[in-house]
Design a protein that fits this description.
Helix content is 41%, strand content 17%. It is built from three helices and two strands, in the order αββαα. The chain is elongated, with a radius of gyration of 16 Å. The N and C termini lie far apart (41 Å).
């Protein structure tokens, strides 16, 4: 019973603190794991900059892309942003 409780606890900690995103590296899609800066049940994140060579213009982002970037910045990088300026997008680009 203790082992089951420990296993459940470990699984919960893993779900809360480990995240990943997929990136195109040398023609292959690779899964990049990371330790989240804040706990959340969301495990899969989207790094909008992982596959692009260019920086997206803040005024051209869709609402869905804004949410993806805000989530990625908060949980991967530990940066809280409203994503209102181009500088906010560039700060979230850093790894």
């Amino acid at each position: 019973m203790k082992k089951l409780i420990a296993l459940i606890g470990l699984a919960l900690v893993t779900v809360l603190y480990v995240g990943y995103y997929e990136a195109l590296e040398d023609g292959d899609i690779e899964t990049i794991l990371f330790i989240k800066k804040h706990p959340t049940f969301q495990m899969k994140f989207y790094n909008i900059h992982a596959n692009d060579g260019e920086i997206r213009k803040v005024e051209r982002l869709t609402e869905e892309e804004r949410i993806w970037i805000v989530d990625y910045c908060r949980y991967r990088l530990g940066i809280d942003t409203d994503l209102k300026t181009q500088n906010d997008v560039e700060v979230c680009r850093k790894k």
